[in-house]
């Protein structure tokens, strides 16, 4: 089942927003949403048989919003939210008793169409406070930030059944490239709280060779805390460098065994889109 973590609860307006990129804007502070003290929530996406679907990420204000409601986006003024680039998220209702690892008490706001839980001023972008008349009691999956660092992933290219691989994963300086899936440890990765992509086989981390520059390839090296080893997953399917906002790119969009993976300027093409999959389909 596809899930995306790093959704956060804004401490000022109470809305759920995506904390893995641009944090949008809060109606209370007119600044980016602030997830200080928030749990890490995980949303199901592209799974229409789970819960209620048609929840979308707004690329402007960064909240999750129920698209059929045509809610109000703070950044776009009187205009509706814009869902360009969003997956189709599904959110479940509270179960009785509440399922382990979930948190209920979330509601749809009939004015802004966002998902909120009482916090701070509960200010709505449409004016006043959030109003949940007619809403169900929604429950979100909660991810343990520390435990989640142990989760192993295959990093799968949208070009097909090809994954991030390093055949000599135990050797510093080894090249990271694209290879057909076979399930070996050299194709398994963890992402830790520092933003490092860590090889399960060796503990070495992915690094942009020679520093964060567009067109540079990826290698494995011991962790050293440099910007060249820090990445973040983004809601549009890209994996970005923390500094410079470059993305992991399959060189030339080729699928030949051993095709180099680069850090490159974003262009929106499929060779820059990835999925983190804990179990192979």
Sum this structure up briefly.
The chain is mainly beta. The chain has one helix and 21 strands. The longest helix has 4 residues.
N to C succession of SSEs:
EEEEEEEEEHEEEEEEEEEEEE
Q: How far from one another are the termini?
A: 9 Å
Class computed from helices, strands and strand pairing: mainly beta
Helix content: under 10%
Q: Can you count the beta strands?
A: 21
Rg of Cα set: 20 Å
> Segments where pLDDT lies below 50 for 5+ residues?
none
Relative strand content: 25-35%
Mean model confidence by pLDDT: 88
Number of helices: 1
Outline: elongated
Largest sheet: 9 strands, antiparallel
Reconstruct the topology from this structure:
Elements: E1 3-9, E2 16-18, E3 40-45, E4 52-57, E5 64-66, E6 89-93, E7 102-108, E8 115-116, E9 138-143, H1 145-148, E10 154-157, E11 162-165, E12 177-180, E13 189-191, E14 197-199, E15 205-208, E16 218-221, E17 231-233, E18 239-241, E19 247-250, E20 261-264, E21 274-277
Structure description:
The protein has one helix at 145-148, and strands at 3-9, 16-18, 40-45, 52-57, 64-66, 89-93, 102-108, 115-116, 138-143, 154-157, 162-165, 177-180, 189-191, 197-199, 205-208, 218-221, 231-233, 239-241, 247-250, 261-264, 274-277. 1% of the residues lie in helices and 32% in strands. The termini are close together. Strand 13 and strand 14 (197-199) form a beta hairpin. The protein is built from one helix and 21 strands. The strands form seven sheets. Strands 1, 2, 3, 4, 5, 6, 7, 8 and 9 form a nine-stranded antiparallel beta sheet that branches. The protein is mainly beta and 281 residues long.
């Amino acid at each position: 089942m596809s899930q995306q973590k790093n959704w956060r609860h804004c401490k000022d307006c109470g809305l759920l927003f995506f904390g893995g990129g641009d944090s949008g804007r809060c109606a209370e502070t007119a600044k980016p949403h602030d997830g200080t003290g928030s749990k890490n929530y995980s949303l199901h996406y592209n799974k229409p048989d789970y819960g209620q679907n048609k929840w979308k990420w707004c690329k402007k204000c960064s909240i999750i919003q129920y698209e059929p409601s045509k809610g109000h986006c703070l950044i776009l003024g009187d205009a509706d939210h814009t869902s360009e680039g969003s997956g189709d998220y599904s959110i479940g209702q509270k179960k009785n008793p509440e399922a382990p690892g979930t948190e209920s008490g979330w509601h749809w706001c009939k004015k802004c169409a966002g998902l909120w839980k009482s916090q701070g001023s509960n200010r709505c972008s449409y004016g006043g406070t959030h109003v949940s008349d007619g809403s169900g009691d929604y429950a979100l999956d909660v991810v343990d930030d520390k435990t989640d660092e142990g989760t192993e992933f295959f990093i799968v290219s949208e070009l097909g059944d090809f994954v991030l691989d390093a055949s000599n994963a135990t050797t510093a300086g080894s090249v990271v490239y694209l290879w057909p899936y076979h399930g070996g440890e050299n194709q398994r990765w963890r992402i830790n709280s520092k933003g490092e992509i860590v090889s399960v086989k060796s503990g070495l981390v992915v690094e942009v060779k020679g520093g964060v520059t567009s067109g540079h390839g990826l290698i494995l090296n011991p962790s050293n805390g440099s910007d060249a080893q820090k990445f973040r997953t983004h809601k549009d399917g890209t994996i970005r460098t923390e500094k410079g906002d470059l993305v992991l790119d399959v060189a030339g969009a080729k699928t030949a065994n051993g095709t180099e993976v680069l850090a490159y300027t974003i262009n929106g093409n499929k060779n820059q889109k990835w999925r983190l999959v804990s179990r192979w389909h």
